Amino acid sequence: MSDWLFFIEVSLAGLGSGALLALAALAFVLIYKATQVVNLAVGELLMLGGYLFFAFAAGWGLPAWAAVPLAVIGGGLVGAVVERGIIRPMLGESAISVFMVTVGLGSVLIGLVELIWTADPRTLPAFISTKPLFLGEAYVSRKIAVAFAVAAVVIGIFLLLFRFWRGGVALRATATDQAAAYSCGINVPGVFSIAWIVGCATAAGAGILLGAIGGISPTMGVFGLSALVVVIVGGLDSILGALVGGLALGLIQSWTGTYLGGEYTNVVTFGILIVALMIRPYGLFGTHEIERL
Amino acid sequence: MPADAILEVENIELVYNKSVQVLRGLSLRVPRGQIVALLGSNGAGKSSTLKAVSRLLSLENGELTAGRIRFDGQDTAGMQPHALVRRGLFHVMEGRRIFEDLTVEENLTAATFALSGRDLPRGGFDEVYGYFPRLAERRGTRAGYLSGGEQQMLAIGRALIAQPALILLDEPSLGLSPVLVEEIFTIIARINRDTGASMLLVEQNAAVALALSRYAYIMENGKIQMDGPSDRMIADQDVREFYLGQSDGAGARSYRDVKHYKRRKRWLS
């Protein structure tokens, strides 16, 4: 019986971190869907979000309700600057050069953060109560529960927006055919900007939640690599894929970490990546092109 | 020059990648409310002309190095393509270019962005569905699964949503069966008559285009070779032979008599 309880607790913790993975994956998906750019700096933008919150909450002593939105907005601003300054001039260049630019951007962000806040890990001021939460008999850390709830709500909102909002149609149209989107009167550069702003703001929000659970350090961007696995397995252009893939990977990482040992998590994570790519190269939920016969 | 032209193109030169010159001093005009045809062989620069007008050529590294384009009396230099669409110039691109992953209805929704600042007429998409009942039947289908003819209808339907003053039509007959070509062109004529939208029509199918249009330009090698009212063009000996594939001589003639290639070359130079 207690074995079962333990398993459920491990699973709940896995779902919590899975929700964060899904949120970070959403940042990948938003930017990829609109601009066809795989933004490898998502992990570092996430880290930057954590540090921005740290600066507002610990440095300026702002309360959490002000510091959280400020940090998210800050992440969005960084996204806007990056899109206008670096990505838009690269429009029309090959996908691999834009990809490499985002790799460089990630390194620059790490360097900046180390210059400002040093390389030492820090803990965020507590803004989620540490009182444990019980689901039936199973214990869940309240931070993980909050992270899960926030991620679920945010992803749900995006799913609805994409399906029912006119702007969601514009974004999907832009993703399918830029020239045709222009010809329909869609402001394509505007769509790019919004995707970057919202994507980076989402990453920053995920960074705050992640930092609240495990503390922040300049290397926490590695989390972005796990999120990359999620989007590649789930499909680079699928929000649903990000959600399902994120939760699944969170569960799997939690199980392997507990039952096999922490050293197995990376082996299993990237093992899944390889197998998934062999079976469904366009991801579990990704679109593969329609071919009429 | 009369003032009632919706589109005036004056001596434009278009260069791709700063190296390949495609248009060499091309001029044409579209009077308000009329259909004008732009004919020519492959690679003459017809599609490039349309992209120059709609300014979509910037996406393909094309640049206007000389000349002027005026839409509705205003110089379009420096305008963004989407801004031009919102002012009433809609480009139905070659190859239909519908959004395959979106449903029929979502494709039309995407075109409502062309209305920014104006309202979608009451009844929404009913006007489009009125012209193309088949689209109404398939409104929930992903557009990629439509037949070629239905996709062309959708592409024209998107233009209708925008309530444009000028529609640029690039090869609406591409890849369609003769029956469908006739159906599509009948509807194009109806749209022109009902909405008063002017049209600049690029076509390989010269017979259909000349029948539909009031005035026609023929271009070769990036400039206008000849132009005139369409009914006069249909009667023209050279046009009949080189673009309509007809000749007056009855019965078989030997290749030596035709000297098609030489005559054509002389005509072009």
Automatic annotation (TrEMBL), chain A:
Membrane topology, as annotated: Multi-pass membrane protein
Keyword Acetylation: no
Any GO BP annotation: amino acid transport
Pfam families: BPD_transp_2
Subcellular locations according to the entry: Cell membrane
Transmembrane portions of the chain: 6-30, 37-58, 64-82, 94-117, 144-165, 186-213, 225-252, 264-283
Any GO molecular function: transmembrane transporter activity
Sequence similarity: Belongs to the binding-protein-dependent transport system permease family. LivHM subfamily.
This protein's name: ABC transporter permease
Provenance organism: Marinibacterium profundimaris
UniProtKB/TrEMBL annotation, chain B:
ABC transporter domain: residues covered: 7-246
Keywords of this entry: Amino-acid transport, ATP-binding, Nucleotide-binding, Transport
CDD domains for the chain: ABC_TM1139_LivF_branched
BP-aspect Gene Ontology terms: L-amino acid transport
GO MF, any single term: ATP hydrolysis activity
Tree of life domain: Bacteria
Protein family: Belongs to the ABC transporter superfamily.
Name of the protein described by the UniProt record: Branched-chain amino acid ABC transporter ATP-binding protein
Species: Marinibacterium profundimaris
Lineage, highest ranks first: Bacteria, Pseudomonadati, Pseudomonadota, Alphaproteobacteria, Rhodobacterales
